[in-house]
Amino acid sequence: MIGGGFFGNGPVQVALLIGGGAAVVSAVVGVFTVMRGQSFAGHALADISSAGGSASLLLGIPALAGFLAMAALGAGGMEMIGARQIRERDLVTGIVLGAGLGLTALFLYLDISTTSASGAANTVMFGSMFAIAPGTVPFALGVGALALAVSVVLYRPLLLIAIDPDLAAIRGVNARLLGLLHLLVLAVAVALSAMTIGAILSTALLIGPAAAALRVATRPVWAIVLAVTIGLVATWGGIALAYDSFYWTPGHGWPVSFFVVVIVVASYAAAGPVGGALARRRATALPAPVSGFEPGG
């Protein structure tokens, strides 16, 4: 199993730092994404960001900058078009998603045919956690910290819109501006997770821990805490298992993204029975009604 060389390994240290940061940001943003019913938008932005990741390989710029730029463009386009056609939000998201994947196909073709990036498709779509450059760490953690700060500022109005949109409108909450800001923070979350476990699988890190936490927790704050815990366990556990897998099949380690997704899915599956048991326990802990007293009577 994991030996002393695990924490002393340079690529592992980078993976733990950036992967942990991506897990925390994705979990916090993911809770509001699930509560607002924007899981499909999150998945679409992750796929759209793959165009930026593939373009960065072609242009020789940092991969995170490419993922971020394209995800932000996709978020702005979805909100701008969706604001005029609210009832067709999923349709607009699908159209923008298709355009993004078309660009991804073009850039990956150019990557393979004009450069020596033969593994470009695998890197962009499924991530390459142990190949992230150490110089990326400050930028990635800085962007993640900024996204978390914005999420803290937006916490109360986002929660109000997610629970009671009509009350939010009465209180003068600017739903369109708030929606755009949330999509931009969501773009940062999917860009970070796309760089670590790949554009296709980043949805698992964004939605999975949040969905599992919301099956168990009854308060948003506890849902966020639990989602962060699940995200970190999945990411750091996936890194540890992938590192150890080099000894299972010598010279051929298993992908980190595979282990991360397995742990996320297992957490979601376990959250159902745990949430049900907790709900029954809370119900039995309520005081029994006084004889002759009828609720509402």
Task: Give the topology.
Elements lengths: L4 H4 L1 H26 L3 H21 L3 H22 L4 H26 L5 H7 L9 H28 L1 H6 L4 H23 L4 H15 L3 H25 L11 H30 L12
Helix pairs in contact: 2-7, 2-9, 2-10, 2-11, 3-4, 3-5, 3-6, 3-9, 3-10, 4-5, 4-9, 7-9, 9-10, 10-11, 10-12, 11-12
Number of strands: 0
Sketch the topology as an H/E string, one letter per element. Answer: HHHHHHHHHHHH
Report the C-alpha radius of gyration, rounded: 21 Å
Fraction of residues in helices?
over 70%
**SS class:** mainly alpha
Shape: globular
Distance between the termini: 63 Å
Provide a compact summary of the structure.
This is Metal ABC transporter permease. Helices cover 78% and strands 0% of the residues.
Describe this protein's structure.
The chain has 297 residues and is mainly alpha-helical. 78% of the residues lie in helices and 0% in strands. It has helices spanning 5-8, 10-35, 39-59, 63-84, 89-114, 120-126, 136-163, 165-170, 175-197, 202-216, 220-244, 256-285. The longest helix is centred in the last third of the chain and has 30 residues, at 256-285. The chain is globular, with a radius of gyration of 21 Å. It starts with a helix and ends in a 12-residue tail after the last helix. The relative contact order is 0.16. Mean pLDDT is 85; it is low at 292-297. It holds the Pfam family ABC-3. It comes from Acidiphilium acidophilum (Thiobacillus acidophilus). The chain crosses the membrane at residues 12-35, 55-78, 90-110, 140-163, 183-208, 220-243, 255-279. It is a multi-pass membrane protein. Belongs to the ABC-3 integral membrane protein family.
